[in-house]
Each structure stands twice: as structure tokens, then as C-alpha cells.
Amino acid sequence: MKTALLKKLSVTLGLAAILVSVNTASAVPFVYDVNSQGTFQGITAGNNPFAGFYKFDVPATESGSASSTFATVISNSGLTATITWSGAQPTLNSIILKASNNYGTWDISNFNSNVYTSIVITNGTVLTGSGNVAEISHVEFSGSLTPKPPGATGVPDGGSTLLMLGLGLMGLAVAMRRRS
């Protein structure tokens, strides 16, 4: 009786683990959209002094103290920048976008790197002298980095936890069956 109940429980947990794993494998990354979530501060003409935290120059030059943390990809005919990071958690204050000879600045102090997996900004604001939307030539951040604590690892998702529990219970059921 105990063996049959244990076997049913382990099979149920194993199936639940598979369903949860399949569901979480297709999870959509959380994207911070600067255009809708940041606060536009204005446009400045001319040169903007680089603060030294992170700067991406098209086509692929990165500089600043956080340049090894970030990766930037320009797409959409030069109008969209997607920024990702690895390692330390960034705390960001503002993003500066250069297009043509103008800089647009957005306050992104509400950005939380524990929630978002990437940042996207599409230029529809910074224009050329003739009034056309300009291709992005620079992306800059002001902010700081918080290192991950030594030995910090991710928490396993619910699917793998249920799978391990189900396999353990199945092993117990087999061992009890052999004993009787």
C-alpha cells in the first residue's frame, strides 16, 4: 500500500517537474525599454563630456570602467541599441544617446538590474539638422557596478527541484519494493 502510494506520488511529481521545466524554458527575458520606462531629459547639441563609466561607439568600440561588463548591439538600420551585461550588477542613473551631432539624455534611475535582463532604446527623438531621425553613433551610461558576492549561485528553478524530488521518491519506491 505504501509502495503504491509512493510510486503514484513520485510519478506525479516527475510529470509536474517536466511540465514546469518546459514552461520555464520558454520564458521571455525582461527588457527595460528606455523610451517608455525612462524619463526623457532633453537634447543637447555638440560634444558631451564622457563620464568614464560605459561608452559604446559604433561600429563596435567600448570604453570606460564598465566596458567589460556590457555588450551593445545596434540594429534596426542603426536606430535601436540593445544592451546586455554579465557579472556585476549595474546600478544605472542615465543613458545618453548620440545621433548626428546631438545628444539625448534619459533618466533611468528606476532601472533595476535584478529584474531586467537587457536594455533597449530606439532613437525616434534625436534628429539631424534637417529634421530626420539620425542613426545612433554612441551610447553612454552613468552609474556604478555592484559585484556579485563570492560563491553566489542561482537558485534552481522549480522544475528541476520537482524532478529531483520525484526521482528520489521513485528510488525509494523501488528500494521498498525490493525489500518486501
Q: Residue share in helices?
A: 25-40%
Secondary-structure element sequence? HEHEEEEEEEEEH
Shape: elongated
Q: Total domains, how many?
A: 2
How large is the count of helical segments?
3
CATH architecture of the largest domain: Sandwich
The level 1 CATH classification of the largest domain is: Mainly Beta
Which structural class should the secondary elements be placed in? alpha+beta
Calculate the mean pLDDT score and round it.
Answer: 76
Distance between the termini: 12 Å
What is the percentage of strand-forming residues? 25-35%
Low-confidence segments, ≥5 residues, pLDDT <50? 19-28
Number of strand elements: 10
* Strand order in the largest sheet: 2-8-7-10-3-4
* Topology-level CATH name of the largest domain: Immunoglobulin-like
Whole-angstrom Rg: 24 Å
Largest sheet: 6 strands, antiparallel
Characteristic terms for this protein:
180 residues, alpha+beta, 2 domains, 3 helices, 10 strands, elongated
Can you put this structure into words, describing what you see?
The chain has a six-stranded antiparallel beta sheet with strand order 2-8-7-10-3-4. The chain has helices at residues 2-25, 34-37, 158-179; strands at 31-33, 39-45, 54-57, 61-63, 70-75, 80-85, 89-99, 102-107, 118-122, 136-146. Residues 19-28 have low confidence and may be disordered. With 180 residues, the chain is an alpha+beta fold. A hairpin with a 4-residue loop joins strand 5 and strand 6. The chain is built from three helices and ten strands. It has two domains: 1-27 and 157-180; 38-148, Immunoglobulin-like (Sandwich), CATH 2.60.40.
